[in-house]
């Protein structure tokens, strides 16, 4: 296979540069905290700068993998070091490099202990995240997939809140159990396909319908937990609530997107007939997540916990769009994954800003913040309105496409999902009213407005909110060909009998 046309291994550089930065931090004395922070920030900025040519050099006219790197790794097992990007994965690499910079900036003053270990964990996590989106060999993919668990476990368990150990263990166990079932599915594919881990090769083959169905659920175990879908979502609120701000931002912006990415990269192209047959089930679970997550938000008294449950609802929209199995739904779902990463990541950044001043997340402890922190309040309302999908913000574009695709696939699912938008507007605006208006609470009197570091951290998210909201084709253009190819694979791949089964199941549910 041809190597990439960049002239150097850009994807490998993006994966291993943060790891090399983490190794460099190991060599710096623990007492030199300012140097540790500066090195971590410089490494993350360099990774972001290196990722920008991906954005400009990407060929939007083809669905083929680009920037490909391939090298024999373990020939005895037919394992290759195989990397590449297409229109589905490229935006997530760019999001990962950006979010890492912001996570480091927001932690500049808030992390007081084990500073070197904290930034080492952040950088290793960045490398693993990028690796997941680039890997085209199942063995390599699984290594990166599992490698993410360790630094995130440490971020929650070491630098988290009072119940951090419980939240970290719960996060680890939920994701590990799902990953083990996926590993079993990968091994079955490996032997059935003649001992190959090549994801692109495996996606061109046809598998018996019953095997597709079994493997779909094996992979579902890993991806549904990571999304997280109802009812395997309960680890997420605990993890978000206890994690430090940087952990919550990375978890919301990137890590939970990997479950939906798994459905797009593996479940649908490898098991197309099973994906079609299970569409009614997936749509049902998505609608439940949308409404359930939104209703639960109305009862929350903790800022981070409310935003965490809103992620359950918003990711329900993503899976609804994906399993609508049409162009509007799929493109809306992918774009909404990026949108959710931007908006929810920004909301967690914003909560971190005020938590560093007040050391409380209880909504009742706030009130009147707008009168003492006007710039901060203006930034927060932008993210609030984007979260509820106000036109001209990025949230509107994603939700509009998803609902359009959802109505096309199943009118009842589309109508029920739309109610989630209404409830979402209710809980987000009510949250803003309680925190920023009402009577000024004594605990917020005299709070300093955002400083320059915090403003620099939040402004990129503001720019992306309006950039995607006003001119979304900059980002949608990347995915057109890849989505078209994926839909063709789902509609034409697999055993001939499964379409009839899917149609029958759909008719029964309707």
Secondary-structure blueprint of this entry?
Blueprint: H1 10-27, H2 33-57, E1 66-74, E2 79-85, H3 90-106, H4 115-134, H5 138-147, H6 149-159, H7 164-192, H8 199-202, H9 209-226, H10 235-242, H11 245-255, H12 257-270, H13 272-277, H14 279-297, H15 303-322, H16 327-358, H17 369-372, H18 374-387, H19 394-409, H20 411-436, H21 452-470, H22 473-492, H23 498-509
Antiparallel strand pairs: 1-2
Percent of residues in helical segments? over 70%
CA radius of gyration is 22 Å
User: If you average the pLDDT, what whole number results?
Assistant: 89
Shape: globular
Q: Would you identify the regions where 5 or more consecutive residues have pLDDT less than 50? A: 495-510
Note down, in words, how this protein is organized:
This protein has 510 residues and is mainly alpha-helical. 73% of the residues lie in helices and 3% in strands. Mean pLDDT is 89; it is low at 495-510. It has a two-stranded antiparallel sheet. The radius of gyration is 22 Å and the shape is globular. A hairpin with a 4-residue loop joins strand 1 and strand 2.
Short overview:
By secondary structure, the protein is mostly helical.
Question: Tags for this entry?
Answer:
disordered C terminus; 23 helices; 2 strands; two-stranded antiparallel ribbon; 510 residues; mainly alpha; 73% helix; 3% strand
């Amino acid at each position: 296979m041809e190597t990439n046309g960049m002239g150097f291994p850009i994807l490998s550089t993006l994966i291993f540069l943060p790891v090399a930065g983490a190794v460099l931090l190991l060599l710096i004395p623990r007492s030199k905290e300012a140097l540790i922070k500066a090195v971590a920030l410089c490494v993350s900025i360099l990774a972001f700068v290196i990722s920008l040519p991906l954005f400009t050099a990407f060929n939007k006219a083809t669905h083929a993998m680009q920037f490909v790197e391939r090298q024999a790794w373990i020939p005895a097992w037919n394992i290759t070091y195989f990397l590449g990007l297409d229109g589905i994965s490229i935006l997530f690499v760019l999001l990962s490099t950006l979010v890492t910079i912001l996570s480091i900036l927001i932690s500049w003053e808030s992390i007081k202990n084990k500073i070197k270990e904290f930034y080492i964990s952040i950088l290793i996590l960045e490398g693993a995240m990028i690796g997941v989106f680039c890997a085209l060999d199942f063995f390599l993919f699984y290594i990166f997939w599992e490698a993410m668990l360790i630094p995130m476990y440490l971020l929650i368990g070491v630098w988290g809140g009072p119940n951090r150990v419980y939240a970290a263990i719960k996060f680890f166990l939920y994701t590990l159990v799902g990953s083990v079932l996926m590993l079993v599915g990968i091994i079955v594919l490996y032997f059935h396909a003649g001992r190959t881990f090549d994801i692109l090769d495996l996606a061109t083959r046809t598998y018996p319908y019953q095997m597709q169905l079994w493997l779909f659920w094996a992979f579902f175990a890993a991806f549904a937990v990571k999304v997280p879908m109802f009812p395997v979502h309960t680890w997420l609120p605990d993890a978000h609530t206890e994690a430090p701000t940087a952990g919550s931002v990375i978890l919301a912006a990137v890590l939970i997107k990997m479950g939906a990415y798994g459905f797009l990269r593996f479940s649908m192209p490898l098991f197309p007939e099973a994906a079609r047959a299970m569409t009614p089930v997936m749509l049902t679970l998505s609608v439940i997540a949308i409404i359930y997550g939104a209703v639960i938000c109305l009862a929350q008294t903790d800022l981070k916990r409310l935003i965490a449950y809103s992620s359950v609802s918003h990711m329900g929209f993503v899976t609804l769009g994906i399993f609508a199995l049409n162009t509007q739904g799929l493109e809306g779902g992918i774009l909404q994954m990026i949108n959710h990463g931007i908006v929810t990541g920004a909301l967690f950044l914003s909560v971190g800003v005020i938590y560093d001043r007040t050391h409380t997340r209880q909504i009742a402890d706030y009130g009147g913040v707008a009168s003492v922190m006007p710039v901060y309040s203006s930034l927060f309302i932008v993210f609030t309105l984007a979260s509820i999908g106000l036109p001209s913000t990025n949230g509107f574009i994603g939700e509009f496409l998803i609902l359009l695709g959802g109505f096309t696939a199943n009118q009842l699912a589309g109508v029920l999902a739309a109610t989630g938008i209404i409830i979402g507007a209710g809980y987000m605006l009510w949250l803003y009213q309680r925190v920023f208006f009402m009577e000024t609470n004594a605990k917020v009197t005299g709070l300093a407005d955002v400083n320059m570091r915090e403003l620099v951290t939040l402004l990129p998210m503001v720019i992306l909110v309006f950039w995607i909201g006003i001119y979304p084709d900059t980002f949608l253009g990347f995915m057109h060909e890849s989505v078209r190819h994926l839909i063709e694979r789902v509609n034409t791949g697999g055993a001939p009998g499964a379409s009839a089964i899917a149609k029958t199941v759909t008719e029964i549910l309707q």
